[in-house]
Structure formats: structure tokens, C-alpha cells
Amino acid sequence: MDVGKIIKNLWEGSGYYLFGADNGWKSIVMIIIALFFLYLGIKKKFEPLLLVGIAFGMLLTNLPAGASDKLFHADWWTVQNIDYMDILRHGGLLDILYIGVKTGVYPCLIFMGVGAMTDFGPMLSRPSSLILGAAAQGGIYLVLILAAATGMYTGGEAASISIIAGADGPTAIFLTKELAPQLLPAIAVAAYSYMALIPLLQPPFMKLLTTKKERMTVMTTQRKVSKKEKVIFPILVTIIVALLLPSVAPLLGSLMFGNLLKECGVTERLSDTAQNALMNIVTLFLGISVGATAVGSTFLSEKTIVIIVLGLAGFILATICGLLIGKLLYVISKGKINPLIGSAGVSAVPMAARVSNTVGLQYNKGNYLLMHAMGPNVAGVIGSAVAAGFLLAVFK
Amino acid sequence: MQLDLIAAILNKESKLDVVDALLLALIGIAIVFIVLIALMLIVTLVGKIFDSSDAMKQKHPEWGDKIANFKAKLAFWKKSTPEEEEEVTPVDAPLAKGSCGELTLVNTSDRDAAMIMAIVADETNTPLNELRFKSIKRVDDKNMEEEK
């Protein structure tokens, strides 16, 4: 028995050996990124519900050798006509979970849960919040111009990249799977990672673009919103927006259906399921399967790096657009609206609103902006869905 | 909305050029603003209708009584079996496990109270079940401004 040969075979069959093979360095880079994301999620608590799942999915599929092959097959998802039956028969766990991303089922279910958790009351009591929600979508269109300027992307690809600036993961996935499915891994990872990093990305620009006096502005509560208004709102929005932009009806319809379950008062059990059990299950599946798509050999490319950079620019530009209109509203309202809530116009609910609240508290203890920032925040969800509907109508 | 015209101008397979992107960006942001401003106007209108209806009820309380009487009459005619007329006596529910006495709310909604308690728990890093709230009173916004 040749012990040396056995040891050699064992070594060459191990993942450690494969790190030295072609593209092995890419796996190492991705593992380092995954570990960094895990650190941010666990230690820094940056949206751990999302980031821990994404990071662990990324870690699993970047381990060379058999471990990742049994979980996910990145190459199965890049072909034109995906054979779902074959995936169900022979796919790994993450392949099967990824079907929900690829078919656009998870984004709609997530929106249903978000709708069931969202209180549109702050927005209904201060309708001008909708303007802040619209303003922050400026980031999407500025990134569209930037993506075109690189000369690297088709219209569908540029539109899919631009939607990252909406800070709305489900919408980004929904749009990308229609317009540029080949970019889905990079866009999904960028969108969710930046959403998780909002507490890190937004505050410097919030401080840079506002004065101390503006940041200290105390906002008073507006009129009380009746239950009937809250019930009517999701029905009205569904009819108005879905008629105008039918392509976005699945997303917006799910969001508003979830909200109607919450507000109508006769479907508590369904509302509870949508906002807890269903939301948790879909978040779990979405996080780990989106992370799994970031396989180093295909993920670390020039196009991906440009997408990551454009996505970052998009988040910053969306924050700036929201803040600038927030400052305008501060002037128009004669100092009654705190411009910090403008940055919450990006639709990452409720992270962006929480950031507005945190920055506000740093300058005026007792100045709780959370409920005021929720208005633009939920308006941003509607705004990014409208923006996605427009891009789908143009490029599909 | 028919965006076929714009779609026809763009060749989907070729790279998007900056001029087309600029044009699309302008139309796109205009559409977002138009839709959200339309929603804003509708929300404002619906709010005004509800507010004026509440104001009318306060101004003419007798209308409220008349509506209540009408509803009561309707309910009487709808009742078909005598069992439905049985009155249900409210029973005081026992306090929830782990709760600590009762909380008095003065001009504060349940929702606001829940939010305040959550904020206090978060700020003091104390689990909510280890805190005891006796009363939460809403201070009028005007009074707060005067105090400043």
C-alpha cells in the first residue's frame, strides 16, 4: 500500500489544495468578503437578519471541492432556458431555494410581509412625505445615466443596475430577473448588502448636507388618521398604480394586500402570518440563496465590480436627492420639517427611518424622528415600485 | 401607460447611450413625481373628507344621534332569532402573565404608549418585562413649545 499516494490523493481532493488551482484566489477573496459581512452582521448588528444569511450563503458556495457542488450550481442558472424540473430532481438545497428568487416569488412574498408590517399612518397624516419618497428615486435615474456613460451595458442591464439605488431588494430582484437575469447575483448581493450597510453609508452625507440647526428641528405630530382612511389607502393605491403601470402590479399588489390584511381588522391571523412566519421563512430562504449566487469564479468580474461601484453611488445619490428635497421642504414649511427625514425616502424599510432617528437623536436628545421618517420611508417603497414599473414598461 | 413609443426608439440589444439615458431619466423621474403627487393629492382629499365629516358630527351632535337611532332600527329589523338579542356581560379579563399592575393612559393611544415603552426599554437597555409603567400622559404640543 502506497501511503504517500493516499495522502497525496487526500490532499489533492481537499478544498485546501483547490485554493491553489485556477480561480482559487477568487474563492479566497469571496470567503474574506463573507467573513467581513458576518462580522458586520453579528458584531456590528448591521441588519443581521439579512446580512448573516447572505454572508453564510456566500461562504458555503465559495468553499472549493465537493461542499459547494452539493449545495448550489451557479452554471445551471446562467443558461437561457432554465430546466426547473431538472433542478428539482438533481439540484442542491440552495438551487431549490433559489427558484423562488429566479421566478420572482420571494420578492412578492416579502412585499406582502412588508405591507403587513407597514403602518402608512405617518405618511397619510403628512402627505408631503410622498414628495420625499419620490425625490429619493432620483438616485435610480442618475445611476441609469452613469451606467450608460460606462458604455458597458444594454438598456435592460443599465435599468437593472440603476434600481439598486432604490434601496429595495425585492424590487431589484423583480426587475433584474425580467431585464437582465445574467446580472441577478451581482445586483441582488449589491442591493441587499448596501441595504444592510445603510447605517454606515447614510450618516456622513446626512451630516454633510444639513446644518446643526436643521438637524435639531423638532417635528410635531400631524392630524390623527382614521381607520377607514387606512383601509381605503391600499385599495386606492393598487387601483391607481396598477392601472397606470401594470408591470408592477405583482409587487405593489402584494405590498398593498399585506397592508390591507393588517388594517382591515378582520384578518388578524393572516396578517400575523404574513408579517411573522411567512416573512421570516422567505427572508431566510432569500438571504442564503442570494448569498450563494456570489460564486467567486463568475462573480469577481469587471462588470460586477462596476455594478458594486454604481450601486454604492446610487445609494449615496438617492440619499443626497432625498436630503436636498428635505432641505427644500424645511424652507417651505418654515423650519417645521426636519430635513434628516429626507434620507429615509430611500425605501429600505425601516432601516433608513431608523438612521434618520438615530442621527436626529445625536443632536437633540428626545427628538424622536422615527414616526416622521416612516412617512417618506414607506413612500419610497411606492416610489421605487413606480420607478421599476416605468423601467419594465420601457425595456421589457 | 403606453411606453411602446419610447421602447421602440431604444434598441434593447445595443448598449444604452447617454443621451437616451438622460431622456429616459427625465421622463422616469417625472412619472414618479406625477404618480406620487397624484397620490398625495388623493390622500389629502380623502383626509379632508374624513376630517370635515368628523367636524360636522361634532358641530351637529343631533345628527349622530339620528344616525345611531337609524342604525339601531336597522339592527332590530335584521335580527331574526331571539338568541341573538341576548346581551353579553363583559367579564374582566385577568392580567396577562408577567404584567405588573395596570397602566393609566392620559390622552395617549395604545399605539403611542407601546412605542414609548419600547423606546424606554431600548434606551435603558432593560427588558420590557422588567420595567413598570404606572401612567403615560400626553403633554400638549402647544404647552411644550411654551415651556421652551
Tell me what the structure shows.
The complex is a heterodimer of chains A (396) and B (148). With 396 residues, chain A is mainly alpha-helical. Chain A has one domain. In chain A, 72% of the residues lie in helices and 0% in strands. Chain A contains 23 helices and no strands. Chain A is globular and about 85 Å long. The model of chain A has no long low-confidence stretch (mean pLDDT 90). Chain B is mainly alpha-helical and 148 residues long. Chain B has two domains: 4-85; 104-147, no CATH class. Helices cover 59% and strands 4% of the residues of chain B. In chain B, strands 1-2 form a two-stranded parallel sheet. In chain B, helix 4 (110-124) links the parallel strand 1 and strand 2. In chain B, helix 2 (18-59) packs across helix 3. Chain B starts with a helix and ends with a helix. The mean pLDDT of chain B is 75.
SSE map:
The complex is a heterodimer of chains A (396) and B (148).
Chain A: H1 3-13, H2 15-18, H3 24-42, H4 48-61, H5 66-69, H6 84-90, H7 93-102, H8 105-117, H9 121-125, H10 129-135, H11 138-150, H12 155-162, H13 169-179, H14 184-196, H15 198-209, H16 212-215, H17 227-244, H18 249-263, H19 268-292, H20 296-299, H21 302-332, H22 351-363, H23 370-395
Helix pairs in contact in A: 3-4, 4-14, 4-19, 7-19, 8-13, 8-18, 8-19, 10-21, 10-23, 11-12, 11-21, 12-13, 12-23, 13-14, 13-23, 14-19, 14-21, 15-21, 15-22, 17-18, 18-19, 22-23
Chain B: H1 4-9, H2 18-59, H3 61-78, E1 104-106, H4 110-124, E2 135-137, H5 141-147
Parallel strand pairs in B: 1-2
Helix pairs in contact in B: 2-3
Keywords:
heterodimer, A: 396 residues, mainly alpha, 23 helices, globular, B: 148 residues, 2 domains
When the domains of chain A are counted, the total is 1
Instruction: Give the termini separation of chain A.
Output: 63 Å
Radius of gyration of chain B: 28 Å
User: Sheet with the most strands of chain B?
Assistant: 2 strands, parallel
- The quaternary structure here is heterodimer
* Approximate strand percentage of chain A: under 5%
In the residues of chain B, how many domains can be counted? 2
What value does the Rg of chain A take, in angstroms? Answer: 22 Å
Count the helices of chain B. How many?
A: 5
Indicate the low-confidence ranges of chain A by residue numbers: none
The helix content of chain B, as a percent range, equals 55-70%
